[in-house]
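Deviations from the work plan: none for this task. Representative record:
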Amino acid sequence: MFDRNGNDSSTYNQENIAEIRKTSPRVADLIEKEYNRQKNNVELIASENYCSEAVMAACGSCLSWKYAEGYPAKPIERHSGNKGRYYGGTRYVDELEEYCCDMWRKVFDTDYHVNVQPHSGSQANFAAYKAVLEPGDTILSLNLDNGGHLTHGSAVNFSGKLYDVHFYNVDENGFIDMEDLKKKANELHPKLILTGASAYSRTIDFPAFAEIAKSVDAYFMVDMAHIAGLVAGGEHISPFGYADIITTTTHKTLRGPRGGMIFCREELAKKVDSAVFPYAQGGPLEHIIAGKAVCAEEALRPEFKEYAHQVVVNCKAFAEEFIKMGYNVVTGGTDNHVFLLDLSDHEFSGRDLQNALDEVGITLNKNCVPNEKRSPMQTSGVRVGTAPMTTRGFKEEDFIKVAHRIDEVVKQLDAEKAAEK
Ligand SMILES: Cc1ncc(COP(=O)(O)O)c(C=O)c1O
């Protein structure tokens, strides 16, 4: 794991690269270049993080060799031939998968059913919809321009093609507009109300969502992919107890391996399980499931609570510094790990800033802002996140320095545009 200055206290990556080099110098070279890029850059992408060597080792373990289509058999059935799986030899992966599920229930202090097999967040959402909807059913979700994810109803994604998706918006200050949600829920009577976001910096009021969903007899689903680590660390209100179905990724603020999970109320368990396998996927990635279990153990440690708290403290200080320098931060601040800089009043685009920052070793991504005037390929904003650099030990004062470095680059771009004119 890299520290704040890019020193790696472990030889794990170097040893891996040396092993790969024996077979493929080309692949080893590319991995080494990416390793150095990550090591030397300030990483501000809100959906990324650095997982531990223990997580990586689990993901690179012999479990990658095992097929285990199906689900763990109940212990009593295991002796009589792995009834829940379509393959033999699953005794240990059965135990592992059950252990992983138990650990995640512990992390979120819940008795919800959990499925740890989804290969990604998108596949978790695909299966979650399948569990409670028929094609053509109505979903009410957060507008993608206002922070929603591709799988929440984009016209180019399965979600927008298979379902009748309508959107609620944010208000003129960038906060989720609960009145708009209520009005549309009453008009549309959706079968599913969905919340969760890829670029929303404020606390989501799950109890209020649940109440509105109940009033129109809709399922309530939360995609907590971005904030799951903050929920686990007690820094964001938990959706458990409010939502019928909850999806997440494990590689963002949770700091685990790349993958997805679905939690649901017990009465939906069978539907969710069969929507993941055999409907959406084949054999589960047991090596990734091992990584998810290690990640859960890490999330249960007191240090993880401290980490989640520092992510939010850092993000508030970072956003505040931009506000002090006169920037427009969407919603005027943040409650979580992310905020959006609205650059609509500059001549350059979000993409221009993303590219210019790349040149000076700062990685972030362009992002649409509410009332976006530019195309999604250009955008008028950038998304800024604190989860990865907090893992590397950055504190408030470090992010304040980065804010000033970004400001220098913004001024340079302003000057270039002025000179062009
Ligand atoms: C809110 C949300 N849901 C789902 C996903 C999809 O996750 P994946 O990239 O693992 O498919 C993302 C990814 O960024 C996300 O932000």
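The chain has two domains: 62-299, 302-420.
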